[in-house]
Design goal:
13-stranded parallel beta sheet, mainly beta
């Protein structure tokens, strides 16, 4: 996959040769009816805005007791908008937004300390909403049209990380991530949806969706869980819930209109589902500790249920 490195962050790093100087700001606009605002009231902050095109809007706010934050916005095209808000006791945070195309929108809020964020959107009418609070990092890349990503990261002590890649049109991801978790999500195709909640500690998710209209729903509470898998095809559904501690789940789907459900509510259990074909259904319920289950389906219209108590 082609990856364009956003240049906004590089521009802002070059904008001030002395890190311990006062606040610095640099604005560049080429085109018509563009709007840019920088508001800095803290210490040692750096901001860069570059806009090439028409009717673009960009704003950076570094206020209150913000200190040593860096923010950069670069927009190429027409009708794009981006905002970066670094305030409410924000320190040593970095945000970079790159948008190329028309009608793209990015909204970033960073509070507390040492947040890192890179956003790249190439296409039209893409949207990213990011909220980060404390020792977290995130990368988001969109190539296509009408993709949407919203995430909230809270990393009080251990920090959390996520990476989301959307390639195609009208893919949607909503993510809530608490302290100490890791996530990678890849969506390629059209109208794929991922709803993810990582509410405990030290949970991991690595998943990919390819094709059209696939749905992933995940809730990880407790600690030390892992999920891996992929959906390839059209209209596949996956629902995974993990609670307590140390559970592992894996799902592989390749086909059409398959359904896989895993519910792990005790500790140290393993579950795996493989579905090849169409209209298969598989359900694993694990309420006992330290159990394992595997379902493999190849064909059409199969149904299987495992309940371990």
């Amino acid at each position: 996959m082609r990856h364009l490195q956003p240049i906004a962050l590089a521009l802002l790093l070059a904008a001030a040769s002395d890190l311990y100087a006062d606040n610095s700001a640099e604005l560049e606009q080429i085109g018509d009816t563009n709007s840019a605002t920088v508001d800095q009231t803290g210490l040692l902050n750096q901001a860069v805005i570059s806009q090439h095109g028409n009717v673009n809007d960009a704003s950076i706010y570094q206020g209150d007791i913000a200190e040593s934050n860096q923010a950069g916005i670069e927009q190429l095209g027409d009708g794009n908008s981006a905002s970066i808000y670094q305030a409410l006791d924000s320190h040593f945070s970095t945000a970079s937004v790159y948008q190329q195309g028309n009608g793209n929108r990015a909204e970033v809020e960073q509070t507390w300390r040492t947040n890192e964020l890179q956003i790249s959107s190439i296409g039209n009418d893409n949207y990213v909403s990011a909220a980060q609070s404390g020792f977290v990092n995130a990368q988001a890349s969109q190539i296509g049209n009408g993709n949407s990503l919203s995430f909230v990261q809270n990393g009080s002590f251990q920090g959390s990380s996520l990476a989301v890649y959307q390639v195609g049109d009208e893919n949607l991801a909503n993510i809530q991530q608490d302290d100490g978790n890791g996530l990678q999500l890849i969506q390629t195709g059209t109208l794929n949806v991922a709803q993810v909640q990582q509410l405990g500690y030290f949970n991991e998710l690595d998943f990919s969706q390819s094709g059209d209209d696939n749905l992933l729903t995940v809730e990880q509470s407790g600690r030390g869980h892992s999920i891996q898998g992929s959906s390839a095809g059209t209209g596949n559904r996956i629902d995974i819930a993990q609670a307590y501690e140390g559970n592992e789940a894996a799902v592989l789907q390749n086909g059409t209109d398959n359904l896989a459900s895993i519910n792990q509510i005790n500790a140290y259990s393993q579950a795996a589902i493989s579905q090849l074909g169409a209209s298969n259904q598989a359900f694993i319920m694990q309420s006992a500790e330290g159990v394992s289950a595997i379902i493999q389906q190849a064909g059409n219209g199969n149904m299987a249920t495992i309940n371990q108590q």
